[in-house]
Design brief:
heterodimer, A: mainly beta, 4-stranded antiparallel beta sheet, 11 strands, 0% helix, 47% strand, B: mainly beta, 6-stranded mixed beta sheet, 5-stranded antiparallel beta sheet, 55% strand
Chain lengths: 116, 110
């Protein structure tokens, strides 16, 4: 009963390096989200996906790319890491909304990323 | 663009005192959700409000959704040390577009 699994949990990068964060969910959810969390700024939406093969930009998409090749996986890529991207990254998934309401978001444990 | 403001940013209370956090959106929301994040943890869903003027209770927690569906509040009666954490509101303006408030961090003096 894993829910939402994020890998890795911690990573330190040098400026200019690239990396991919992986999010996997086993709840057959349609919607998946990537957020970053910085002190005092809450959760800011980077990119999201409403289904396999689809992605869309959130509030703060610059410097990030995403892919949703399989329904259960949502990848977040940093092509050229910058110190401003030091943050805690959370992935979340949720079921398809009904006409009246949305479904709860289920979050992973987060990835703590430091860029030197 | 849509903004969701949450106040206060921090609240430090004596155990047993009440606590309230407020959420205000710049646009009308289709529904609003509330989450709690313990220190070092991830956000966990608490509740969703859908209807104008809706009030829901979970034990000592009372959630309200404004008549205009642009504001919401979470009130905790007689706080306990287990209530420590950051409380976030999250507003939906459409089926997929969600904006989180900046959160209110609650700390408690035993």
């Amino acid at each position: 009963n894993a829910g939402v699994t994020q890998t890795p949990k911690f990573r330190v990068l040098k400026t200019g390096q690239s990396m991919t964060l992986l999010c996997a969910q086993d709840m057959n959810h349609e919607y998946m989200y990537w957020y970053r969390q910085d002190p005092g700024m809450g959760l800011r939406l980077i990119h999201y996906s409403v289904g396999e093969g689809t992605t869309a930009k959130g509030e703060v998409p610059d410097g990030y790319n995403v892919s949703r090749l399989k329904k259960q996986n949502f990848l977040l890529g940093l092509e050229s890491a910058a110190p401003s991207q030091t943050s805690v990254y959370f992935c979340a998934s949720t079921g398809h909304p009904t006409e009246q309401s949305n479904q709860p978001q289920h979050f992973g444990d987060g990835t703590r990323l430091s860029i030197l | 663009g849509q903004q969701v403001m949450q106040i206060p940013q921090y609240q430090h209370v004596q155990e047993g005192e009440d606590f309230t956090t407020y959420c205000n959106s710049s646009t009308t929301l289709s529904n609003i959700q509330w989450y709690k994040q313990r220190p070092g943890g991830h956000p966990v869903f608490l509740i969703q409000l859908v209807k104008s003027g809706e009030v829901k209770k979970q034990k000592r927690l009372t959630f309200q959704f404004g008549e205009a569906k642009k504001n919401s509040s979470l009130h905790i009666t007689a706080t306990q040390t287990t209530d420590v954490g950051t409380y976030f509101c999250a507003g939906y303006s459409s089926a997929s577009k969600i904006i989180f408030g900046s959160g209110t961090r609650l700390s408690i003096r035993p």
